[in-house]
From TrEMBL:
Gene assigned in the entry: bglH_2
A single Gene Ontology CC term: cytosol
Catalytic class of the enzyme: hydrolase
A Pfam family annotated for this UniProt entry: Glyco_hydro_1
Keyword annotations from UniProtKB, A to Z: Glycosidase, Hydrolase
PANTHER family reported for this sequence: 6-PHOSPHO-BETA-GLUCOSIDASE ASCB-RELATED, GLYCOSYL HYDROLASE
Taxonomic source organism: Weissella cibaria
MF annotations from Gene Ontology: 6-phospho-beta-glucosidase activity
Annotated GO biological process: carbohydrate catabolic process
Gene3D superfamilies reported in the protein's UniProt record: Glycosidases
Family indicated by similarity: Belongs to the glycosyl hydrolase 1 family.
The enzyme's E.C. designation: 3.2.1.86
Active site, per annotation: 376 (nucleophile)
Record's protein name: BglH_2 protein
Length: 478
C-alpha cells in the first residue's frame, strides 16, 4: 500500500522504552531502590500500584520484574545497534532518578549513573539517532517515598529540580528533546506507580493526590524554565495519557460526564501548556471532596513557564457514563470507563480505535495550539515463535498501519505533529501487569513472566515492516 505522504522530511519516526521496564541491574552501578521496584507480578501488584499498601515492602517469595527488566543496562550497545537497523530517527527513553540520586535527597549525583547514561546517549548519537528523554517515567527513589511521603511534600520540588539540573548539565549536549513527567495524569489513576503515593489510614486520598499534583506541576514548570535558560536550543514538552472520552449515550448526563472526565484528564496540560489553572478547577476539586489546593507565594508566576510542545500517548479511547457502576466496565486500563460496544478489544481489554487517534489529535491541538508529539502508540499481544524462529506479528502491523493512517488524516486536518514513536520497540516488562507475555516490541526478547529465558533478541515481522515505513517516510504501509 503506497500513499501520498503528509509527513515532512524532518518527521521523527521513532521507538520508545522506559528505564524501569528495561534496564534491570536494580542495585548495580550505585542505583538505589525505586518505587517501581516494589511492584511484584501477580495478584499483589495492583494494590501497591494504587497506593493501597501504606508501607510497601519487598517479599522474598515474590518476583519483581523491574529488578532484572530485559537487562538493557548491560546490553544497551547491542540493542541500540539493532534498533538503528530500523532507521529510527529518534529513540525515546527515560532516566532512572535513583540511578543518579540513589536516595533522592543527596547533594551530589552518583558518578556511575552519570557515566552510564552518557555512554547510552553517545551510543545513540553514533548511530544517528536523536534522543528524547523523559525525566520522570514512573520511576523515583524509594528514599523519597519513605522519608518524605513522596509528592505530598513540597520538598520534592527541590529534589526533582536538583536532579533535572544535573541531567541538563551532564547530558544537555547529547539530548535535544525532553519531557518532564510521563503521562502526568496517571497520578490520579495509579498513585503509587505514577507518583510514589502510598496512602495512610484515614487520609483524604483525593486531597493528598491533588495537592501532590500541584507540587508536580510546580516542579515541571521550574524545570521548563531551567531548560530554556540552560539549553536554549533544546525543546521541552509535557505528556498526557491521551484518549478521548466518548459519551456512552446521547443522554445529556452521559455527555456531561464525558466533559467532566475530560477536565479531570487535561487540567494538567492546561497548566503546563497555558500557564495557569483552568476556570473549572474550583468546581472540579469540590466535586472530588477536595479543599482548595495550597499554593505558596510565587507559584502562579512559576506556572507561567509553559512547554514548547504537547506530547501524548495513545492506545485507546474511553467511554464515559454517569452511571458507570451500573454498566459493564472496560477493565483493561487503569483509566476506568464503560465498555464501548462498537469497538474491538485486545486480549488485555484495551479497545482498538484508530479513528480515536485522529479525534484526540484534533481535540488536543484545538485546545492548546502547540505542536503535538505522539510519543507512545502500540499493541500489547502474545507472540508465538514458529519452529524456524520467525515471529509473524501481522496483528501488530495491522494495528500500527491503521493508527499511522489515522495520524496522517489528523495531520491532513491541519494538526502539526512532530513525530510518531512506537511504544515498547523492544519487548519489555508491561507497566500495567508486570508481564513479559504482554509484548509490544518489534524485537522479541526471550524472557518469561517468571524471569526465566535466555534474553536472546530476535526480529519480528513488524521490524522490517516499520523499517520500510521509516525509509519511505510513511508512504509505504503495506
Amino acid at each position: 500500500m503506497t500513499t501520498n505522504t503528509v509527513f515532512p522530511a524532518d518527521f521523527l519516526w521513532g521507538g520508545a522504552i522506559a528505564a524501569n521496564q528495561t534496564e534491570g541491574a536494580w542495585h548495580e552501578g550505585g542505583r538505589g531502590t525505586s518505587n517501581i521496584d516494589m511492584l511484584p507480578i501477580g495478584d499483589k501488584r495492583m494494590p501497591v500500584k494504587l497506593g493501597q499498601v501504606a508501607q510497601p515492602e519487598l517479599d522474598e517469595t515474590l518476583y519483581y520484574p523491574s529488578h532484572t527488566g530485559i537487562d538493557f543496562y548491560h546490553r544497551y550497545k547491542d540493542d541500540i545497534a539493532l534498533l538503528a537497523e530500523m532507521g529510527l530517527k529518534v529513540f525515546r527513553t527515560s532516566i532512572s532518578w535513583s540511578r543518579l540520586y540513589p536516595n533522592g535527597d543527596e547533594e551530589t549525583p552518583n558518578p556511575e549513573g552519570i557515566a552510564y547514561y552518557r555512554s547510552l546517549f553517545e551510543t545513540c548519537r553514533e548511530h544517528g539517532m536523536e534522543v528524547l528523554v523523559t525525566l520522570a517515567h514512573f520511576d523515583m527513589p524509594m528514599g523519597l517515598v519513605t522519608g518524605y511521603g513522596s509528592w505530598r511534600s513540597r520538598e520534592m520540588i527541590t529534589f526533582f529540580t536538583r536532579y533535572a539540573k544535573t541531567c541538563f548539565e551532564e547530558f544537555g549536549d547529547l539530548v535535544k528533546y525532553w519531557i518532564t513527567f510521563n503521562e502526568i495524569n496517571i497520578i490520579l489513576h495509579s498513585p503509587f506507580s505514577g507518583a510514589g503515593l502510598a496512602f495512610q489510614p484515614g487520609e483524604n486520598q483525593k486531597q493528598v493526590t491533588y495537592q501532590a499534583a500541584h507540587h508536580v506541576l510546580v516542579a515541571s514548570a521550574l524545570t521548563v524554565k531551567m531548560i530554556h535558560e540552560m539549553l536554549p536550543a533544546a525543546q521541552v514538552g509535557c505528556m498526557i495519557a491521551g484518549g478521548s472520552f466518548y459519551p456512552y449515550t446521547s443522554k445529556p448526563a452521559d455527555v456531561w460526564q464525558s466533559m467532566l472526565d475530560d477536565h479531570d484528564n487535561t487540567f494538567f496540560i492546561d497548566v503546563q501548556a497555558r500557564g495557569y489553572y483552568p476556570s473549572y478547577m474550583k468546581s472540579l476539586l469540590a466535586s472530588k471532596g477536595v479543599d482548595a489546593i495550597e499554593m505558596a507565594d510565587g507559584d502562579e508566576e512559576i506556572l507561567k513557564n509553559t512547554v514548547d510542545f504537547v506530547s501524548f500517548s495513545y492506545y485507546a479511547s474511553r467511554t464515559s457514563a454517569h452511571n458507570l457502576d451500573e454498566l459493564t466496565a472496560n477493565e483493561g486500563n487503569v483509566v476506568k470507563s464503560a465498555k464501548n460496544p462498537y469497538l474491538p478489544t485486545s486480549k488485555w481489554g484495551w479497545v482498538i480505535d484508530p479513528l480515536g487517534l485522529r479525534i484526540t489529535m484534533n481535540q488536543l491541538y484545538d485546545r492548546y495550539q502547540k505542536p503535538l508529539f505522539l510519543v507512545e502508540n502500540g499493541l500489547g499481544a502474545e507472540d508465538t515463535v514458529a519452529a524456524g524462529g520467525s515471529i509473524n506479528d501481522d496483528y501488530r502491523i495491522d494495528y500500527f498501519r491503521e493508527h499511522i493512517k489515522a495520524m496522517a488524516d489528523g495531520m491532513a486536518d491541519g494538526v502539526p505533529l512532530m513525530g510518531y514513536i512506537a511504544w515498547g520497540v523492544i519487548d519489555l516488562v508491561a507497566a500495567s501487569t508486570g508481564q513479559m507475555t504482554k509484548r509490544y516490541g518489534m524485537v522479541y526478547v526471550d524472557k518469561n513472566n517468571d524471569g526465566s529465558g535466555s534474553l536472546k533478541r530476535s526480529k519480528k515481522k513488524s521490524f522490517d515492516w516499520y523499517k520500510q515505513v521509516i525509509a519511505s517516510n510513511g508512504t509505504v504501509l503495506s
